[in-house]
Amino acid sequence: MKVIVLLTLCVTLISQGYGNSLDSCQGRCGYGTNNNFSCQCNTSCERFRDCCSDYVEQCKGGATSCKGRCDERYNSQNKCHCNSKCDQHNNCCNDYTDLCGGDAGGGGGVITDADIKAVSEVLYALDSNKATASELIIDPQALVPNSQTSSQKDLSSRPLFRYVDGALLSRPTYAAFLAVLDNYFRMTGQTEHFSPQQVAEQETFIKEAMSNTELGRELFAFFYTKGVYASEEEFLHDLKMMWFGLYSRNNGKMDSSGFEHIFAGEIKGGKVSGFHNWIQFYLLEKRGKLNYYSHSFNGPWTTFPDVMGMQFKWDGYFKQVGSVVIGCSPEFDFALYSLCYITRPWKTVSSEPGRKATHHPNLHLGQNYLWEWEEVHRLCLSFIPLKLPSDEQ
Length: 393
Hints:
Its cofactor is Mn(2+). It comes from Pleuronectes platessa. This is Uridylate-specific endoribonuclease. By secondary structure, this protein is of the alpha+beta class. The protein has a domain at 3-11 and 111-348. Helices cover 30% and strands 18% of the residues. It contains 13 helices and 16 strands. It has helices at residues 44-48, 55-59, 86-89, 96-100, 113-125, 166-169, 172-181, 196-211, 214-225, 232-244, 258-264, 278-286, 330-343; strands at residues 3-4, 7-11, 136-138, 161-164, 247-250, 253-256, 266-268, 271-273, 290-298, 306-314, 317-326, 362-365, 369-370, 375-376, 379-383, 387-388. A hairpin with a 2-residue loop joins strand 10 and strand 11 (317-326). The radius of gyration is 22 Å and the shape is elongated.
């Protein structure tokens, strides 16, 4: 039989709005992020909403040059365009051929659900660092119906993780992941500050996961051929901002990030929020900080990665359903989440149209709040079945 598993994440982080400073985009369009300025002038600023007040005038709608705009997404407000489709529609800027060469970013194109399904299968096949049955042994024990997930009863007398091979966690991507995992305050409302060493740890993890693995390089190649990113540098920078850029979950404090919420977990309103990583679960359980109660879903797969929806307490704080892909490598988790966020922000990706993800937990991680000056974005996580290649039995 074929192995079936897909984890997709649509994660949207903090936006702070255009026009948030007096700095200008004049002469800066398309260049990388510069922390010496309080606002930015590249394509990433549109996603993170930290563009300068004259970004549209200088770099987008009012601009008639392709400088810093090669392979940008179509925007109907622009006077001329700089992507692979502008030739077909006869609306390229005059310097498009000279600056973009007619093929910047690998050609571009719409990313379909079939594209996402196909690249997901490739990433799964390339996950050479996933755990094997000899490296990871779990003991699921009590299975409860969905109606009992809120009971807060400890129905499992033993830990979930029976054995994890220490050599697995010492591999480069695991080691780099672990170095970042302990850099956060778990309680929301406490402003996060990163030391130079912690920033370096973030960059090391992204490099190990995305640049130094075949899986990560495949993900960039996919985005490059689709015209999403024109360079690996732009791709890696976007990942850093996407996952490690801070935003507020409580009282306007810059107290959270995508990485902290999804991988490390947080405490908000007296409950566990986020926390969707098996390595963090294992480490806290091993230290006696986490008590596994039961599970309400366990995937039918006989090899890793597997999907479980679990009930547990973390230092006295309860999680009603914590869904985790168990046994995958950090780079696979990171790549799949990133793939789905970048291609389908604000949406759940359906990898097999018409197929229902029965019994798969569907979690809302956070909620949209729209204020006059600030928006705390919604993070949503769902498990969608995907047929993946495997040996026929």
